[in-house]
Write a structure and sequence with these properties.
- The chain is about 90% helix and about 0% strand.
- The protein has about 70 residues and is mostly helical.
Length: about 70
């Protein structure tokens, strides 16, 4: 009986170690996904803001400045 329970304990220990490794990998993947999402949102805001500024400058230069009546 001692042999069987020792084998069972080893099996449970291995299962716990494998479960802990899977949990750590899962958490690392979740963190990487969250960091990528934040970086993507930041890039979208940065790029979108830059585009809006450039559109505003182009509009001013092409429409407003080029259509001024001579003084």
């Amino acid at each position: 009986m001692s042999n069987n329970s020792s084998g069972l304990g080893t099996l449970i220990g291995i299962a716990l170690v494998v479960g802990a490794i899977i949990l750590v990998v899962y958490i690392a993947i979740l963190l990487a996904g969250a960091i990528a999402a934040v970086a993507g949102a930041g890039g979208l805001l940065w790029g979108g803001g830059t585009a809006l500024i450039n559109y505003g400058k182009s509009f001013k230069e092409n429409i407003i400045d080029s259509n001024r009546a001579p003084a």
